[in-house]
Design a protein that fits this description.
By secondary structure, the protein is an alpha/beta fold. The chain contains 14 helices and 16 strands. The chain has helices at 16-26, 57-69, 82-87, 92-95, 125-129, 163-169, 171-181, 217-227, 236-243, 261-264, 291-303, 305-310, 360-365, 372-375; strands at 3-9, 39-44, 73-78, 97-100, 106-109, 121-124, 132-136, 138-142, 146-148, 186-196, 204-214, 254-258, 282-285, 315-319, 331-335, 347-349.
Length: 385
């Protein structure tokens, strides 16, 4: 069956309700089947408070109001307590209950068919028990997985700092596993403002002005990624989801509705993929790294370029399987799970790929202070090499 993706150009907050209504109408009013009293989970990208770095609250208010008008009970939930700061006094809280996943009871659950998250994990009960699930992502570039939107938004279903589990197990397949655990019944993408550049290591907000909606998260990510100048086939979790039969990987298999894609299209500034060493004395060995870890190292070199140039020390960065250990000069940083057996050679940064917060390992190596939580993000050998 051909999946549908509806697109709508919007201006400011005042245009958002009409844009949402147009898209829902084009999709045949997906909310019309909600039974009276149904509990509807609305999960946005809303864990950062910086202006522009989260879903527009006006969109959440419009979605929550539409759900309430259909006789259902909307709940807006996201990990971390930033959700309270952003929505406490907003109109969205008039229509929906607002809660952090960190404050909800958990249930241990397995994911049938999972390929990465193959052991039971703790998940907020609301996710498993809700009658209808609406994802509301914000389009963002990503220094490790190319771009983040509808599917990767579900990594935020895990409370507190347990998102670390996803990176330990492999972020691409884990993203698909979470979508398998609780498929989204409807996805509404916020493209009014996007985050571009070397995010989440750094990045900037950019006003663009579109919304997108679909009943299929994979189709939405393919359409929106194409709109923003990405090749969806370059995104490992989209390829995996397609192979698992969860959605299309080509625009040829998607029916686009509403505003023409070529009228909304723009070239999003992307995270770096080429590793550029900022100065002599910083030695990087990553020819054998997987694409995700290679992009992490490329992003780290970009994000830390200024600090590495100010620091007068020497550093060796290794990522990917090594037939022979390269020369270890200065501070040594090992990036990625595949170097676990070599972890005592230097500072070990686990993950496949690691997360942006783990840049703290590089700062630690340069002798800079890191916070208590940052210090838990990397391993320092007990005995110096």
């Amino acid at each position: 069956m051909t999946e549908q993706v509806a697109l709508s150009a919007v201006g400011g907050d005042a245009d958002v309700p009409d844009g949402l209504a147009r898209m829902l109408d084009l999709l045949g009013d997906p909310l019309s089947a909600l039974p009276p009293g149904a509990e509807v989970l609305i999960k946005p990208n809303l864990f950062q408070t910086a202006p522009g770095f989260h879903v527009r609250p006006a969109l959440l208010a419009a979605i929550a109001r539409a759900v309430a008008e259909h006789g259902a009970r909307p709940v807006i939930a996201e990990r971390t307590h930033a959700i309270y700061e952003i929505l406490r006094d907003h109109e969205a809280a008039k229509y929906a209950r607002v809660v952090s996943f960190d404050d909800l009871p958990l249930r241990i659950t397995g994911i049938p068919g999972a390929t990465s998250l193959r052991v039971p994990i703790a998940v907020p009960e609301l996710i498993l028990d809700c009658d209808y699930f609406i994802g509301v992502p914000q389009l963002r570039t990503h220094a490790s997985v190319v771009y983040s939107n509808a599917m990767k938004n579900l990594v935020g279903l895990l409370p507190g700092y347990t998102t670390r589990i996803v990176h330990m197990a492999g972020v691409d397949e884990s993203t698909v596993d979470l979508n398998l655990m609780r498929p989204q019944d409807l996805v509404v993408c916020d493209g009014t403002t996007v985050i571009e550049g070397n995010y989440p290591m750094d990045g900037r907000a950019r006003e663009v002005g579109f919304l997108a909606a679909s009943r299929n998260a994979v189709a939405l990510d393919v359409a929106v990624g194409t709109l923003a100048g990405f090749d969806p086939d370059s995104v490992a979790y989209l390829r995996d989801a397609h192979v698992r039969g969860m959605g299309p990987l080509s625009l040829d298999d998607i029916e686009l509705l509403g505003s023409p894609l070529d009228e909304l299209a723009f070239d999003m500034v992307k995270a770096p993929v080429e590793i550029v060493v900022p100065r002599e004395g910083i030695h990087v060995y990553a020819d054998n790294a997987c694409p995700a870890c290679s992009r992490f190292v490329a992003g780290a070199m970009r994000a830390l370029a200024g600090e590495l140039c100010e620091w007068d020390g020497e550093m060796t960065v290794i990522s990917g399987p090594q037939v022979e250990v390269p020369p270890l000069r200065g501070e040594v940083i090992l990036v990625g799970n595949c170097l676990y057996e070599s972890r005592d050679l230097g500072i070990f940064v686990e993950g496949c790929p690691p997360r942006a917060i783990q840049l703290a390992a590089f700062r630690y190596a340069m002798g800079k202070p890191v916070g208590d939580h940052e210090r838990t993000q990397f391993r320092v050998p007990a005995v110096a090499r």
